[in-house]
Design a protein that fits this description.
The chain is an alpha+beta fold and 470 residues long. The protein has two domains: 227 residues, Rhopdopsin 7-helix transmembrane proteins, CATH 1.20.1070; 231 residues, 4-Layer Sandwich (Phosphatase 2c, domain 1), CATH 3.60.40. 55% of the residues lie in helices and 15% in strands. Strands 2, 3, 4, 5, 8 and 9 form a six-stranded mixed sheet that branches. Strand 2 and strand 3 form a beta hairpin. The longest helix has 46 residues. It is elongated and about 105 Å long. 37% of the residues are buried.
């Protein structure tokens, strides 16, 4: 009888431990999916249950050295309580609302029993001191789960469980087996642990099925979202200029590096002829889809104000008035540069944007040009006043270079918390003043990437325009 029981314990213990290891591996592979924490906890739960079978196996204990036998006793004293704690935490991951809170309280109560019961064992080697209370707590938990598994209306409101029929079947097999064993054992009927194991296996497989259904559902949703974001990314890139304008005596390079699939940065060219063109850079507050939608609106709005391309103040004012009703509490910074290559003059205005940088070859200096009005989305006292966005006239010379950029270029921090900042920008422009615009733009982007720690993801969208006067 003992030998048969030991063989059963070895087989069932090995099976449950292997099931738990597989669950942990599956959870690791699908760690991005929603609900994967329940898979991890399920794996730990079954491993603990399986280890109990080894700890109850006299054949295994007889073959182990004395120190391992002692360790097995300690482990048994701990797992007798911890199995229930992990079980409650597993179900907590699959429930909602007040049921989640109840399971959290039951897990806390189980942990208190573990601390007291295992602590008693450490002091006196008395095992199972509070095991009856632990079983009572398990019964309360099973009763609490019954309406969630049996009643679809309650399950929809208070759980994220799929496959209610399978869950109820597993619960019923486990519950009936436990009830029969507990009722008949006081009358002298003894059962092999295989009956406990079969009931628990039916229950754990049903829970695993429900948890994996949730993971698969989450993965399908993630794939759908990723596909939609890929389409959104393509659409967003389609609204950006595909080429730089051909303007006499100018060479232009543009860099656009979104932080995520879609971005809140935007740039546009407004060429009038081969000697006149406007350059707009904008940055929507926030990131992701909401910011990208507003950036798309800016594209449409810019087309409607293109007639004011030669007047930065008027263009930004009209742009602001068009967008103001659409921003819904978000803000947009913008900078606009108009260049007349024939007269060698530029006009510049901005709305809460980082300054325009101008490298002057004649005296090798970097000039910060600020001509800011308020951010789009901020209230104006006089919404139609052209002075809302003051403009600067900038005469330029051959060899000068302009840099229009969003704050994603200047704000990245290194490991010491230092921003890339104006000093690094100035040094890059100074060291590469003789290089063409396209080459400088790549060097500048690589410098910003190198400035950040390799393990730090990009923190903001990066957009900038390099404009060289030949």
């Amino acid at each position: 009888m003992t030998l048969i029981g030991d063989v059963i314990n070895i087989i069932s213990g090995t099976s449950f431990v292997m099931f738990g290891i597989v669950a942990l591996i599956v959870g690791g592979i699908r760690r991005r999916a929603t609900g994967v924490r329940a898979i991890f906890l399920l794996g730990i739960w079954t491993i603990l249950y399986g280890s109990q079978r080894f700890n109850n196996c006299s054949l295994v204990l007889a073959l182990e050295p004395s120190w391992m036998v002692t360790g097995a006793h300690y482990m048994r004293a701990a797992t007798d309580y911890l199995v229930l704690v992990v079980a409650f935490f597993t179900f907590r991951e699959l429930t909602l609302g007040f049921v989640r809170k109840i399971l959290g309280l039951l897990a806390a109560a189980g942990f208190v029993l573990f601390v007291l019961g295992f602590g008693k064992y450490l002091l006196t080697h008395e095992q199972g001191w509070l095991i009856n209370y632990n079983q009572l707590l398990a019964t309360v938990g099973l009763i609490a789960l019954l309406p969630i598994l049996a009643l679809p209306s309650i399950r929809r409101n208070y759980s994220v469980l799929h496959g209610g029929g399978i869950l109820l079947a597993g619960y019923t097999i486990f519950g009936v087996q436990a009830l029969l064993v507990n009722l008949l054992r006081p009358f002298g009927y003894e059962f092999y642990t295989v009956f406990d194991d079969l009931g628990f296996a039916a229950f754990i497989l049903a829970i695993g099925y429900a948890a994996m259904q949730r993971v698969y559902s989450s993965e399908r949703r993630l794939v759908s979202i990723e596909n939609e974001l890929a389409v959104a990314r393509q659409l967003q890139f389609s609204i950006l200029p595909t080429t730089t304008p051909e303007v006499r005596n100018l060479r232009i390079a543009a860099v656009y590096e979104p932080m995520t699939a879609v971005a809140g940065d935007f740039y546009e060219f407004l060429p009038v002829d081969d000697q006149h063109a406007g350059f707009l850079v904008a940055d929507v507050s926030g990131h992701g889809v909401p910011a990208a939608l507003i950036a798309s609106m800016i594209k449409v709005a810019v087309q409607s104000v293109a007639a004011s391309a030669n007047d930065p103040s008027e263009l930004l004012l009209r742009l602001r008035n068009i967008l103001s009703a659409q921003l819904q509490g978000q803000f947009v910074s913008a900078a606009y540069l108009w260049i007349d290559s024939e007269a060698r003059t530029a006009r510049y205005s901005a709305a809460g944007h980082p300054p325009l940088l101008r490298w002057r070859t004649r005296n090798h200096t970097l000039q910060r040009i600020e001509s800011n009005g308020l951010l789009f989305g901020a209230p104006f006292d006089s919404p139609r006043c052209p002075c809302a966005f003051p403009a600067r006239d900038i005469p330029f010379e051959p060899g000068d270079r302009f840099l229009l950029y969003t704050d994603g270029l200047s704000e990245p921090e290194n490991a010491a918390g230092e921003a890339f900042g104006d000093h690094q920008l100035e040094q890059m422009l100074r060291d590469n003043s003789s290089r063409p615009a396209a080459e400088v733009s790549l060097l500048l982007l690589n410098a910003v990437r190198a400035w950040q720690p390799a393990t730090t993801p990009q923190q903001d969208d990066i957009t900038f325009l390099v404009i060289d006067v030949l």
